[in-house]
Amino acid sequence: MRKIIKRNEPIALSNWKRHNPNGHYPDLSHVERQAIRDSCLKEQYYLCAYCCQRIDDKNSHNEHIQAQSVAPNQMLNFHNIVASCNQSKQCGDAHGSKTIPLTPLMDECETELKFYISGEVKGITTRATDTIKILNLGNGNKALINKRKQLLDALIFMHSESPEELQLLDDELLQILMEEINQPQDGQLSAFAPILQNILRQFLKK
Q1: In this structure, which of 20, 32, 52, 86 has its CB flanked by the most CB atoms within 10 Å?
Q2: Does any domain span residue 1?
């Protein structure tokens, strides 16, 4: 995950809430829902809030971190909404109405999940492990692990390194590589860029 810094809600949502003080999320039109998604995509640099694969307005949906059925008073709170991929049995689709103990709105989402070049992920804390299971981000999702591995390798090679050579880089080169990977292009980050950042931070600590 990558920590999401929520900004002001879109004007279309503010206007709708002003004219519909007793309204609910299901009452929103396509216009307001699209405005929410566009704002979330920009905040997230076009990465899924949970798995960090690339998304756009066609293959994503508005995801309530606190489910609407569990926290109806939060269904129109923009700070409770992120953009999730549409992958079946993963991320937003897997979430349902369960409570997510470690969310992408928390600083710790970048430190309590430990990723590997192999594409695998482990939770450092109990809540991280529970979150991996709830969102189906771990070993039970071989397709996601393989996708992570392939795109991590491609991202590494894009920056003129090989996966095997990463651990041999000195701290200065690792820092430069992290800065390059964390630099958006046209407002977008590369797929799984935060995952590679997570791995590089581990190498820096050695």
Answers
A1: 52
A2: no
**Its pTM surpasses 0.85:** yes
Q: Say yes or no to pLDDT of 160 above 70.
A: no
Q: Say if residue 205's pLDDT is above 90.
A: no
- Overall domain count for the chain: 1
Q: Which domain holds residue 141?
A: 11-205
**Helix, strand, coil percentages in the chain from 3-state DSSP, rounded to 5:** 50, 10, 45
Closest CA to 27 of 68, 88, 87: 68
The answer to whether position 3 is within a domain reads no
The rounded distance, in Å, linking the Cα atoms of 77 and 125 is: 28
Residue 158: what pLDDT? 75
CA-only gyration radius of the chain, Å: 18
Dist. CA 147–CA 192, nearest whole Å: 10
Q: Is residue 172 part of a domain?
A: yes
Mean pLDDT of 6-27: 98
Please state, in angstroms and rounded to a whole number, the distance separating the CA atoms of residues 16 and 19: 5
